[in-house]
Amino acid sequence: MSDQAAAGTTEGQGPVEIDEELARHLANKREELFEKFGIREAFPDAVLEEAEARTEDVTSEIDDELDDRRDLRELTTWTTDPVDARDFDDALSIESGDEEFVLWVHIADVTHYVHPDSEMWAEAVERANTVYLPDHTVHMLPATLAETVCSLVPDEDRLAHTVEMHLDRESLSFESIDIYKSVIRSDERLTYTQAERRLDDPELPLHGESSSVFELADRLHEQRKADGSLVLNPRRDRAHTIIEECMLKANKAVTHELMWNRGVEAMYRVHPQPSPDQWDDA
Q1: pLDDT in tens, 191-235
Q2: In the predicted structure, residue 49 carries a pLDDT above the cut 60
Q3: Dihedral sign from CA coordinates of 195, 198, 204, 206
Q4: How far is CA 159 from CA 151, 163, 189, 211, 257, in A?
Q5: How far apart are alpha carbons 101 and 99 in whole angstroms?
């Protein structure tokens, strides 16, 4: 990995030690933010009890789901997240052929465990999202759930939604899109630094898959730039490029399926106008 790429990772930037005075200042600032934006950290007892109950007897529940889901547990699959991440909600699989790439993007199936008539659902609606602060996270869902059955941890069967994309090797256009519920089993949890090393070292596991998915991601990135896409972080390393481009392609696949194949109206996320500084750095 290049020095520049390493410097952009959590591993390359830390660890950092802070004294007690700064720690108190950060804690006070955090409380100010919580009060200003109405962020509630603690979960009601009813929500915690419900989350605890949903994590019981998980293995048999997943086994029961196999009749109604595609079994992808034999497919080589891995996650890539920051070193301090505790919940892994997306994973990748790749196959590279002479005429096509087959890319699978797997997203943890949280809705299997959190139903609209549940206490957890009502609490999640109130919170709207997980809040990430330096060295502190306020979850949208209890950690009991988010970091266990809803996390695609290695060597454990997990329920997922999968977007399977067959892409023409030359044009990278969609040959087919299939979106379905699945059961997956992640082979490994990588940090971004580890993902970079897998690309560099042919002797390490996942080197072949990592090389194939980076080839695809790099070409997708260049294709987007040629089409006029604004690149706000031109120095992004290879591991981040893989995740960014694969997730973008999956988002496009879902949009394509909803709009053209199913005729379903959907709500789309639109990013705000870039700031002058972002324009200058682009």
Answers
A1: 999 999 999 999 999 999 999 999 999 999 999 999 988 777 767
A2: yes
A3: positive
A4: 9, 13, 17, 27, 21
A5: 7
Query: What is the CB-side half-sphere exposure of residue 220 using CA atoms within 13 A?
Result: 25
Element (H or E) spanning 213, and its range? helix 207-226
At 250, list the tokens: 């999956």
How far out from the chain centre does Cα 281 lie? Answer: 26
Q: Smallest Cα–Cα separation from 195: which of 272, 36, 85?
A: 85
Which pTM value belongs to this model?
Answer: 0.86
What distance in Å separates the CA atoms of residue 165 and residue 112, rounded to the nearest whole number?
23
Residue pair 122/44 in contact by the 8 Å Cβ criterion? no
- Burial string for 98-112 (b: 16+ CB within 10 Å, else e) reads eebbbbbbbbbbbeb
Q: Please state which of the ranges 131-140, 189-198, 268-277 shows the lowest mean pLDDT.
A: 268-277
Ordered by start, the domain boundaries in the chain are 18-54+115-148, 71-113+156-266
Cα gap 153→162, rounded to integer Å: 16
Gap between the Cα atoms of 4 and 13, Å rounded: 11
Q: Are 112 and 159 in contact (CB under 8 A)?
A: yes
Asked if 107 and 160 touch (Cβ cutoff 8 Å), the reply is yes
